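ok posting inputs for the zinc ion job
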Amino acid sequence: METKNTSKPTPKKALGPWIAAGKCLCPQCRTGKMFKYPAWNWFKAYDMHQDCSVCGLHFEVEPGFFWGAMYISYAFGVAISVVAGTITAVMLQDPDLWVYIVAVITPLILLSPQSMRYSRVLMLYLFGGISFRG
Ligand SMILES: [Zn+2]
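and the output
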């Protein structure tokens, strides 16, 4: 007896909001990418798409919306500085001032693309007023 596979292909399950935010995906469809290039592409890491390529959501929900992301980016910078300074103090047993400066500024510079990207993502997810439509 021949059996036919009559089941329809199941639709792709939507990602959870934190996973979608971690992958810098659109908050409305959780599928389209917010940024044009990956974070490791240092000079183009900041380029965002104007609209979502999947659902068409305009990412800048109002003019100047992403200016608020500076506050989130500032919080990221403080957190990175505190962690780097604490690790330096614990690992090197209270070194000279210049060691602290280098140990704090280096990760701040290296992580600046991620900080900027995730501050924009969090700004859109938390304050954009956009609900998920799968
Ligand atoms: Zn979308």
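notes: The chain has one domain: 17-127. The radius of gyration is 20 Å.
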